[in-house]
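User: Before I run my own analysis I want an independent prediction to cross-check against. Here's the chain; please return only the structure tokens and, at the end, one sentence I can use as a sanity check.
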Amino acid sequence: MKIIENKAAQIAIKNLKDKLRHWQYLFFALLLPIMFTIMFYFMLGTEKDPTGRSNFDYGFPGMIIYAIGIGTMNAAIMFAQDKKSGMLTRLDTMPTGRKNLFLGALISESLFLMLQIAIMFVFGYVILGLYFEGPLELFFGFLIAVLFGISAVGLGIMIASISKTVEIANAFSLLVFMLLIFLSGSLMPFESPIVYFTPPFWAKQIFLQLTVLGHGLNDSLYSSSLIGAGAEALPITLLGGLLIVVAFSIGFTLLGILIFQKKTKF
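Assistant: Structure tokens:
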């Protein structure tokens, strides 16, 4: 019996090989979050509070979200470059299907993002020795980060699909990425109802409360990282917040497929 190969997986492998050929760009994409982490490490300091945690222990989940957000830019630039080179046009003439093109890109960029998250975990929790409740909590934090990463990648591919040039995709994805990161309060507390409309807020807050504070999924979600010093408990549990993260990931993926299925010219 003939084995039918998964077209999305084939495209994902092609994309990963392309990334390896451009290792200088990969190095920069992986190094940038570490540079910002070191900068914030010295800015926030390592002085412990009565709970045994430092300011940077509370701030590091935001750095994880920042590193993931770069996936939006990476995906947008990668896809825009494929459009510019004519690769997507050639693939579009084959019986590949645009859904497979989108899913292949989503898979390859998500795998790269998992590597980026793993590097940040090693740098923060192994090299810098930052606080976390336990291995199980850290594992769930990793899963939440990956789940949020899927939505970030999906958003980046959508931006690229509507951008005319690589430069526009780069600039637009940077604008969206930075706006979402700052409006979500990921890098610094931002006390505003706006945060609830940003996907990074939900991922960052759940990650923080699970891995750093040791809260359970049935505990209340807080309005910011300033728990005990200004943050308010929301009428929603961490489980409810997790479902919102899942909804964002599914929503961006489905929306991306719908946009991409349009027979517009690459």
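Sanity check: The two ends are 36 Å apart (CA to CA).
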